[in-house]
Fold this protein.
Amino acid sequence: MKMHYICIIMIRINTKIIISVCLLLFAFCGRVDGLYAGTASSDKPFILVIDAGHGGKDPGALGRSAKEKDINLSVAKAFGKLVEENHSDVKVIYTRKSDIFVTLGRRAEIANKASADLFVSIHTNALPKKKIGRGAETYTLGMARADDNLEVAKRENAVILVENDYQERYQGFDPNSSESYIIFEFMQDKNMENSVNFAKNIQKEFKSTGGRIDKGVHQAGFLVLRETSMPSVLVELGYISTPDEERFLSSKNGINKMSRSLYNAFCQYRKGHSKTTITITENTIPQPPQPLKETVKAETKKDNPSPVFKVQLMASSQQLKSNNPRFKGLKPIDFYKEKGLYKYTYGATNDYQEAVKLKNTAKKYFKEAFIIAFKNGVKTDVQKAINETKKNKK
Ligand SMILES: [Zn+2]
């Protein structure tokens, strides 16, 4: 444990030294638990970012005597300590380790800059006066299907209102307007599965280890999750506004049980996600070049037209003109309707590689832009469309 601390402190001093120290450490630890020997020494550690919600001038929700920011921090530190003590191959980064104010944007930035593998934001719930709520719940990013979930997201996002330039910084996001939340339906699709799996582990643990009422896994539009580019969850430990839960979450026993629940869930997640496997998978995905000429040929086959790839940018309940400033000058903009929403797209091509380039351009303005495919004007599975494009070329 002590060596691990030295490791973290030295990162700030000298990256080169620290890397060698870390490598030595991992080689050493690998031999001890016999799991990572031989491969770990050449790998970057698994990076876990633990985010204690609120802090400093932002107390979060208030109980009769407890403040949300303090509960969040206690559980965050206890959770991190368990990981540090038991996983020498995991580097824990905290967005805050004391009672200071950190913006939502900065929290996500810390995780993104560190190329974190997993992000856990810790919060405590509250209900308006006289309402009693009990239990713990875990959120992943997405569109709230229930008003209750939307209310939780609104409350947690409202902290950006204390930042002077929040409209600019969060791209016009208004934490109090339901309309602002619509785009969350399409966010983070690539990390969704891992996030939801982890969230399920957490809920199981909150129930068994924490002895809490299981309020389940939900989706809602949390800004701090939107800005992170790795699997991420936000937990609500319980209700600070309900006296018995406030007492539990402020007690040593409560902090111990909740941090242990998070730790157990993390261990389960970690088992299935070794960095080595991910790297190998990414490097071995074959990406054959697809020249533009052939695309044009495919397009002219009228009887069986080739699928068209487009880049989805956002969705809205309102119809927007293609020159709307929200599209940041990208052309051509098109839309299709699905589930009562207008879904806006950029570009159109028969060439998947070309679509990837379009997506990269779009990502400058729309962080979560992703590729979709159409066949005869009907939306189709992207993988199917890629396969068909390949077949047409033969
Ligand atoms: Zn909170």
Notes: The radius of gyration is 23 Å. The pocket of zinc ion is lined by residues 53-54, 60, 68, 123, 156 (CB under 6 Å).
